[in-house]
């Protein structure tokens, strides 16, 4: 039973990553009708929303695209910064979606930012406490580890509405500004949906692992 569970939580993230890479690889070879580079897409949407102060810069790596709220910067990986593809447009628009959330003080984004310190501590410390608690059969220490882990899981769950909202904003922007045509909407949505799947997979695995540990804790309590 444990082997089935372990295979399950390992396969979910792998399948999600394969889905992302497959969609990105396919649609990065299809040029958008506007033929705008990812950097131009980002700049166009930012300016249309009055976000002239937000910079768009190139960053190293593949699919390392993100919005940095501290420096108010949209960072696009080289392929998406220079690319003219539907994938580049979709990802650039998605990251600008986060910038728009930031500008509008979107509640879920603010909550996620507030959780960052707690989530970092939780993810780093939880497994130490959990492993020591399990090895030493100390239910109190295990419970403390579970509480820290729950904070990290909460961060992942809050991330879901933030990411889905950014993707919805991205679609609205690329359509309303004429960056993509109506017949390109379905393809653009596939890129955004595949990217969102990685967050769903991570959250699902985290919740399952948390539930497993809670069951172990309740079993230890009964034995005591």
TrEMBL record:
Any one biological process term the GO annotation gives: proteolysis
Molecular-function GO term, any one: peptidase activity
Pfam families: Zn_peptidase_2
Record InterPro entries: Zn_peptidase_2
Keyword annotations of the record: Hydrolase, Membrane, Protease, Transmembrane, Transmembrane helix
Transmembrane segments annotated in the record for this chain: 127-155, 191-217
PANTHER family for the chain: MEMBRANE PROTEASE YUGP-RELATED
Name of protein: Zn-dependent membrane protease YugP
């Amino acid at each position: 039973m444990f082997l089935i569970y372990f295979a399950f939580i390992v396969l979910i993230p792998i399948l999600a990553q394969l889905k992302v890479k497959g969609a990105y690889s396919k649609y990065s070879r299809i040029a958008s009708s506007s033929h705008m580079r990812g950097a131009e897409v980002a700049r166009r949407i930012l300016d249309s929303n009055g976000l002239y102060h937000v910079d768009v810069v190139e960053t190293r790596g593949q699919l390392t695209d993100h919005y940095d709220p501290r420096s108010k910067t949209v960072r696009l990986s080289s392929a998406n910064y220079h690319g003219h593809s539907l994938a580049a447009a979709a990802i650039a628009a998605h990251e600008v979606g986060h910038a728009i959330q930031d500008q509008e003080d979107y509640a879920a984004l603010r909550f996620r930012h507030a959780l960052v310190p707690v989530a970092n501590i939780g993810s780093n410390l939880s497994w130490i406490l959990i492993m020591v608690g399990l090895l030493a059969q100390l239910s109190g220490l295990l419970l403390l580890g579970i509480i820290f882990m729950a904070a990290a899981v909460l961060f992942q769950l809050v991330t879901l509405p933030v990411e889905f909202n950014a993707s919805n904003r991205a679609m609205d922007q690329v359509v309303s500004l004429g960056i993509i045509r109506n017949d390109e909407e379905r393809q653009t949505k596939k890129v955004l949906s595949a990217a969102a799947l990685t967050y769903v997979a991570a959250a699902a695995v985290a919740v399952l692992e948390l539930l497993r540990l809670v069951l172990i804790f309740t079993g230890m309590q009964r034995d005591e």
